[in-house]
């Protein structure tokens, strides 16, 4: 019960029509409710130094108690959520994936969206493990790791696994190393130039191929195939028709030659455009049919599942089989 809430805060300044039992204005709400219960009445006369200030009503007090308990319950639940999120590590100031707003409610929605991506990634990974009969993951590569939006969940879900964080954004890699204890690897535009040691039981590649042209797709799929341990899992995401339909509503000026992008995608199943002012970094639309056919070039990468809009993007899961 809120300590400062007294009967005088729930006063109806109406003089009593009947001789209801008196209660001191500074009595607590609990005392007032107990008195009403004991005396079998629904109203009390609120007294302040012998003067009747008005009446108080059982319903008002009971509603206050219910609202207060609910608020306490929500605050406790929020506190638990905040504690759990703190355990997942800090969000970097420079993390572009975490949108900021001065509006508290919008910020709350942004935070939820940010964390949802990591949570859903773990759902996909667990589903993939079930699909291929894996019960543990020892070596995990997150490429691109960004500032650890997914990596923090990998660490929480697989605390004994060795994590490698790779991105072309060196600040993101450094952050993942210091905040989550991941082994840092700086990436390169040309996948052939990326130096990564070892084999991995899982390679998670969220929102990488969504930014690259097909030559780099080839380079990264070669790299992923090479780095996967036998029976290792590759999960990557792409953008397709859903994003093409949104194209009409998004600002038209951030990509080169944007107007023809959706048409090319609809005709060929693939379309890549540079961001204005960038070379070899932009936005890619790729249809499931195009991706599945493209994947046939890596026969060792067996497609286990495709979930259209499994995240905010399409999610492909492959397992490396010996060919
Ligand atoms: C949309 S962000 C996604 C980051 C992260 N997967 C996440 O979900 O928060 C795309 C990331 O790809 C990285 N990137 C772009 N080109 C890359 C390359 N050649 N090698 C590695 N990372 C690259 C960018 O630096 C950026 O961090």
At the fourth level of CATH, the homologous superfamily of the largest domain is Vaccinia Virus protein VP39
Strand order of the biggest β-sheet:
6-5-4-7-8-12-11
CATH fold assignment of the largest domain? Rossmann fold
What is the overall pLDDT average? 92
Topology, pairings included?
Blueprint (H helix, E strand, L loop, with lengths): L21 E3 L4 H11 L3 E6 L2 E7 H30 L16 H29 L6 E4 L8 H7 L4 E6 L2 H11 L2 E4 L13 E6 L8 H14 E11 L2 H6 L14 H8 L1 E5 L7 E5 L1 H8 L5 E7 L6 E7 L3
Parallel strand pairs: 1-2, 4-5, 4-7, 5-6, 7-8
Antiparallel strand pairs: 2-3, 8-12, 9-10, 11-12
Helix pairs in contact: 1-2, 3-4
The protein binds S-adenosylmethionine (SAM).
Tell me about this structure.
The protein folds into 2 domains: 1-87, CBS domain Like; 110-320, Vaccinia Virus protein VP39 (Rossmann fold), CATH 3.40.50. The protein is built from 9 helices and 12 strands. It is an alpha/beta fold. Strands 6-5-4-7-8-12-11 form a 7-stranded mixed sheet, with helices on both faces. It has a 3-stranded mixed sheet with strand order 1-2-3. A two-stranded antiparallel ribbon has the order 9-10. The structure holds S-adenosylmethionine (SAM). The site of S-adenosylmethionine has 17 residues, from loops.
């Amino acid at each position: 019960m809120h300590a400062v809430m007294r009967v005088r805060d729930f006063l109806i300044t109406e003089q009593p029509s009947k001789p209801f039992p008196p209660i001191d204005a500074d009595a607590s709400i609990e005392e007032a409710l107990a008195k009403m219960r004991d005396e079998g009445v629904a109203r009390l006369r609120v007294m302040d130094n012998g003067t009747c200030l008005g009446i108080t009503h059982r319903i008002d007090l009971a509603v206050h108690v219910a609202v207060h308990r609910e608020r306490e319950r929500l605050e406790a639940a929020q506190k638990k959520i905040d504690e759990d999120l703190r355990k997942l590590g800090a969000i970097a100031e420079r993390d572009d994936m975490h949108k900021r707003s001065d509006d508290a409610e919008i910020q709350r929605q942004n935070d939820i969206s940010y964390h949802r991506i990591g949570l859903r990634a773990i759902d996909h990974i667990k589903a993939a493990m079930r699909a291929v009969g894996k019960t543990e993951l020892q070596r995990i590569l997150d490429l691109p790791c960004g500032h650890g939006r997914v990596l923090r969940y990998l660490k929480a879900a697989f605390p004994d696994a060795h994590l490698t964080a790779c991105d072309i954004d060196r600040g993101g890699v450094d952050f993942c190393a210091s905040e989550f204890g991941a082994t840092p690897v700086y990436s390169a535009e040309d996948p052939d130039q990326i130096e990564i040691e070892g084999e991995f039981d899982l390679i998670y590649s969220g929102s990488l191929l969504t930014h690259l042209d097909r030559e780099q797709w080839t380079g990264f799929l070669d790299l992923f195939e090479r780095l996967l341990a036998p029976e290792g899992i590759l999960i990557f995401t792409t953008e397709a028709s859903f994003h093409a339909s949104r194209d009409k509503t998004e600002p038209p000026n951030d990509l080169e030659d944007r107007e023809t992008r959706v048409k090319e995608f609809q005709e060929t199943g693939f379309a890549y455009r540079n961001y204005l002012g960038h070379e070899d970094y932009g936005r890619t639309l790729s249809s499931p049919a195009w991706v599945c056919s493209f994947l046939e070039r890596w026969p060792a990468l067996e497609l286990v599942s495709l979930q259209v809009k499994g995240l905010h993007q399409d999610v492909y899961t492959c397992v490396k089989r010996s060919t």
